[in-house]
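WARN retry 2 of 3 for item q-0093 after timeout on previous attempt; input resubmitted unchanged.
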Amino acid sequence: MEESLEFSDLLRLIEERSSAFRAAMAAAPGLDVQVPTCPDWTLFDLAQHIGVGRRSWAATVAAGPAATAKVAAKGDTVAPQEREALLAWLATSTQLLLDALQEAGPDRRCWTWWSRSQSPSTSGAVARHQVQEIAVHTYDAQLTVGAAQPLPEEATLDGAGTNVVPGGLAVPFTPLITP
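OK item q-0093 returned
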C-alpha cells in the first residue's frame, strides 16, 4: 500500500501526539484514574504501555533486518511513579524512538508483527503504526482528563488506509496483552 504521509510527517506526528499525551498526563488529577476506553488500565498503566512500547520499537528498528522478533526495550523499562519523573521518562522514550527511526530512514527492513499484511516490514511502516498508536492513546488520555481533542485528520486517514481493507482488518486480530 502506498503511504500517504512522508516519513518526516510521520516523525512530526509522533512528536506532536507524544507531546499532547504528556500534556494530558500532566493535567490528570492523579495517575491512578481509570481510562474509560481501556477499562483495565489506569493512566499510569497507559503511560507504561506507551513508554515501554517506544523503547522496544526503538530497539527493534535499531536492530534492523537481523532481528527475527520484537527486541526487548532497553534502559529503564519501568515507568517512574512520580509525575515529573514519569513525564521525563515518556519524553526520553519518544526521543529514543525518533532517534532510531531517523537513523534508520524510511526504508530499512526490520521485524514487524504485521509481516503478512499490506504494510511493508520497514522502519517507515513502524513510524506509520506508531503515529496511530500514539494518536489513539493520546485521545484515551485526553478523554480521561476531560479534555478530549479530535484525532488529527492526517493521522486518522493514513491509519485507515493502513489497517482497514475491504472485508476487515489487514491482519488477524490478536487481543492486547495488558501491562
